[in-house]
């Protein structure tokens, strides 16, 4: 491959689980992964042949032990990390079934607005900006991470 070949995107499905009281689910990245200990929205990489919804359903089953209802893509972002160029497909999720089990030794937290946990993964920050816009509030990224 040429030194100047474009980097290939890693496609990632990410779930924004929202409770009726407005709280959102954040999970911490497990030990052994890049950015271990950072808070993120749960999800993971698409496997060959999967749609975003299928990948998200599989990942949340594997990582959290829950079965999600329908999920459709809300927005798409890209983030260029030293370890990967990722394309994040963000899905809002309002329905799920099952008891939460942290199957990868991660932590979970239902967070109010604005979220209190730190640090938050850089690639998740746009979501917080959109939520602030939806609420008509200013958002200062310096207050997180
Ligand atoms: N799940 C998740 N991934 C995110 C978010 N923001 C963000 O930049 N990413 C990036 O998207 C990629 C997701 O990969 P992952 O390591 O969580 O996925 P995975 O569970 O399939 O990993 P593995 O099978 O390689 O262990 C990582 O490069 C991660 O840094 C986010 O809010 N949630």
Automatic annotation (TrEMBL):
One of its GO terms (molecular function) is 8-oxo-7,8-dihydroguanosine triphosphate pyrophosphatase activity. Its cofactor is Mg(2+). 8-oxo-dGTP binds at residues 29, 40-43. The keyword Glycoprotein does not apply. InterPro entries: Mutator_MutT, MutT-like, Nudix_hydrolase, NUDIX_hydrolase-like_dom_sf, NUDIX_hydrolase_CS, NUDIX_hydrolase_dom. The keyword Acetylation does not apply. Residues 7-133 form the Nudix hydrolase domain. Its EC number is 3.6.1.55. Mg(2+) binds at residues 43, 63. PROSITE patterns: NUDIX, NUDIX_BOX. It catalyses: 8-oxo-dGTP + H2O = 8-oxo-dGMP + diphosphate + H(+); 8-oxo-GTP + H2O = 8-oxo-GMP + diphosphate + H(+). It holds the Pfam family NUDIX. One of its GO terms (biological process) is DNA replication. Keywords: DNA damage, DNA repair, DNA replication, Hydrolase, Magnesium, Metal-binding, Mutator protein. CDD domains: NUDIX_MutT_NudA_like. Belongs to the Nudix hydrolase family. PANTHER family: 8-OXO-DGTP DIPHOSPHATASE, NUDIX HYDROLASE FAMILY PROTEIN. This is 8-oxo-dGTP diphosphatase. The lineage of its organism: Bacteria, Pseudomonadati, Pseudomonadota, Betaproteobacteria, Burkholderiales.
